[in-house]
Amino acid sequence: MADPIKNILKNNHDIKVNGSLWLESADGHFFGPGPVELLERIAETGSINMAAKAMNMSYKKAWALVNALNTQTSTPVVIAQTGGKKGGGSTVTHEAIELIKYHRQLRERFKDFLEKETQLLKT
Amino acid sequence: MADPIKNILKNNHDIKVNGSLWLESADGHFFGPGPVELLERIAETGSINMAAKAMNMSYKKAWALVNALNTQTSTPVVIAQTGGKKGGGSTVTHEAIELIKYHRQLRERFKDFLEKETQLLKT
């Protein structure tokens, strides 16, 4: 029987398997946790500005992300309104909700994978 | 039934789930693909220098990695000899072989996870 890896590596107690996950396509576009969090917060607040603030992100960067997202999707995921009496307001589409849902489930499965691997590391 | 995500995201054909994986402990030490590849190459070549060259890594950096590895493991994983008639030569220990084996299996399981998720993305 092989030595448990935790016996080879020091700091047995707190060692864990961790990682990151993203969606990518051959043309270099990718879709990671940042854009999804932005989508989630726009869905919650109805505002790109508030979503950006909550993420300590500049309004400019948030807009760039929204534009990038809308370019990467077959139909826009954020419908942005600028100006107007109420100072704008943005809504997310059905497709955005689907993306958010998918992403949450994917994270959940990845979390399970990492937890299983961390357990395996210690046995 | 929800829309397949591939219908929401453009570039359906080549989209895939990708990610990276590492081992980490609370004190900030971590053990990723780089050190493992170095170990593998030292095991193959019996030489830190040749291993470093094969990875386009400076000798200095390779040594730093080896020292870091030996500090993170309960027994050294690389036994390095410098100088001497044959100009040095390094061997890896049983523990290094175990680490390499574990790491390969972990990568294999992660690859399976990513492939499964990529398939799921397209259905």
What would the keywords be for this entry?
alpha+beta; two-stranded antiparallel sheet; homodimer; elongated; 123 residues; Arc Repressor Mutant, subunit A; 54% helix; 4 strands
What is this structure's SSE topology?
2 copies of one chain form a homodimer.
Chain A: H1 5-8, E1 16-24, E2 30-31, H2 33-45, H3 48-54, H4 59-72, E3 78-81, E4 89-92, H5 94-121
Antiparallel strand pairs in A: 1-2, 3-4
CATH topology of the domain at 30-114 in chain A: Arc Repressor Mutant, subunit A
Whole-number mean pLDDT of chain A? 86
Separation, N- and C-terminal Cα atoms of chain A: 11 Å
Taken from the alpha-carbon principal axes, the silhouette of chain A is elongated
Percentage of residues in DSSP E strands of chain A: 15-25%
The number of helical segments of chain A is 5
Q: Which structural class should the secondary elements of chain A be placed in?
A: alpha+beta
Q: Rg of chain A from C-alpha positions?
A: 19 Å
How helical, in percent, are the residues of chain A?
A: 40-55%
Short description:
2 copies of one chain form a homodimer. Chain A is an alpha+beta fold. Chain A has helices at residues 5-8, 33-45, 48-54, 59-72, 94-121, and strands spanning 16-24, 30-31, 78-81, 89-92.
What does this structure look like?
- The structure is a homodimer of 123-residue chains.
- Chain A has 123 residues and is of the alpha+beta class.
- Chain A has a domain at 30-114: Arc Repressor Mutant, subunit A (Orthogonal Bundle).
- Chain A is 54% helix and 15% strand.
- Chain A has helices at 5-8, 33-45, 48-54, 59-72, 94-121; strands spanning 16-24, 30-31, 78-81, 89-92.
- In chain A, strands 1-2 form a two-stranded antiparallel ribbon. Chain A has a two-stranded antiparallel ribbon with strand order 3-4.
- In chain A, β1 (16-24) and β2 form a beta hairpin.
- In chain A, α2 packs across α3.
- Chain A is elongated and about 65 Å long.
- The interface between A and B is large, with 40 and 40 residues.
